[in-house]
Design a protein that fits this description.
By secondary structure, the chain is mainly alpha-helical. It is built from 18 helices and no strands.
Length: 385
């Protein structure tokens, strides 16, 4: 009897008479076992000839078997666990509610708080409460992802680009501060007062001082402005603008007036943005909104993330509705059973109905006894006679 792994020549020839694959591998070797070890030498020996005669659906099998290299993925449990997340995109349909980068303790704390709030009473309610906790966890994750995507869009909007969109002068736009792209930024009253004072001195300096070869004698006319510039550049330039005793400018800056003028221009531009920030705030919001909505591709992705968040929140709301409906139905059932039990008579009174059903004729009438002063009727009749 021929084994199942051995190909029967008559059976194969009757079904595959015009098949090139059968002609090469079955008819020439009728007792050949179809295994990878036996077929691989034939594949490599006449690869071009074989592919020439094979039909399309067998060419794919031939290429796949010739290129087979065995298992190339991770072999350890940790590697397999990491590789299982290769196709992870949003995590919305992931089997595991906890993704690799999330904190397991925080997730367990979240589930514990949800279960404590819902207080499930049976296994069905516990299952629904677990689903609600997982849905809330996924919704929070999607909200975080949408927020990060919005921040990624605004990272492309630099302060200089925003200043150019607002039509600010090029000299001022080149020194636009980082807070320009933060429309909710606030300055204190004392800081604004000092900034206005320094900006007035800067404007006076720009109008009256030009072509100075050494600013060591000029700074004494504008002490607040130069002191403010000294503190503003304290951690960004070396050496500092003033000497350690604050009696004059450093020799480095006395000999390089052009470099010092560049610092003066940069600090003066910063003061202009601080002083005029309240007037620029509305324009900043408008141009940031325009920038956000002009990004068509990113806007579509943000809308997709928003839809995912809404879908997850809607699913969570449906689960909550199901949970509380179940809780209400169980409470209604308990109240109904309690009312029925309160209306039923006790066991001691259940036989009273049978007494009322007895026919009145079967009950004998009670005998009327004469009173002590009354005499029988016979005695009364004899006395009268």
């Amino acid at each position: 009897m021929v084994s199942r792994t051995i190909v029967n020549r008559r059976r194969v020839s009757s079904f595959h008479q015009n098949d090139a694959f059968t002609l090469l591998f079955v008819r020439l070797k009728p007792r050949t076992c179809f295994t990878t070890e036996c077929l691989t030498p034939w594949f490599f020996r006449g690869a071009g000839l074989i592919q020439l005669f094979l039909p399309e659906w067998q060419k794919g099998i031939f290429i796949m078997m010739s290129n087979y290299q065995g298992q190339t993925g991770p072999k350890s449990d940790a590697g397999k666990r990491i590789a299982s997340m290769n196709a992870l995109k949003s995590g919305l349909f992931a089997k595991s509610p906890l993704l690799p980068f999330e904190d397991e303790r925080q997730y367990k704390r979240h589930v514990k708080l949800v279960l404590h709030s819902l207080k499930p009473e049976d296994a069905v309610q516990l299952h629904l409460a677990q689903q609600i906790a997982d849905s809330m966890w996924r919704g929070t994750r999607q909200e975080l992802r949408a927020a990060l995507h919005r921040e990624e869009i605004f990272k492309q909007l630099t302060p200089r680009i925003l200043a150019g969109l607002m039509g600010i002068d090029e000299k001022l736009a080149s020194h636009a501060p980082p807070f320009l792209v933060t429309p909710n930024h606030r300055f204190g009253r004392t800081y604004l007062k000092q900034a206005r004072q320094h900006h007035e001195q800067y404007e006076h300096l720009q109008r009256n001082v030009k072509g100075v070869l050494n600013y060591n004698m000029v700074w004494r006319s504008y002490p607040e402005f130069f002191q403010g510039m000294h503190h503003w550049f304290a951690n960004t330039i070396s050496p500092r603008i003033f000497m350690s005793n604050s009696q004059g400018l450093e020799i480095h800056w006395q000999n390089r007036p052009k470099e010092l003028e560049a610092l003066i221009t940069e600090y003066g531009s910063y003061l202009w943005y601080v002083v005029n920030y309240e007037q620029l705030r509305s324009q900043i919001r408008t141009w940031m909104a325009i920038w956000f909505f002009l990004k068509g591709r990113h806007a579509n992705e943000v809308e997709m993330f928003d839809e995912i968040v809404l879908r997850e929140r809607r699913s969570c709301q449906l689960l909550l509705d199901s949970f509380f409906k179940m809780r209400k139905s169980q409470m209604d059932h308990a109240l109904l059973m309690h009312s029925r039990m309160s209306l039923e008579p006790p066991d001691t009174l259940r036989g009273m109905g049978a007494v009322a059903a007895v026919d009145a004729e079967e009950i004998p009438e009670p005998k009327i006894r004469p009173e002590k002063n009354e005499m029988p009727d016979s005695v009364m009749e004899s006395s009268t006679s």
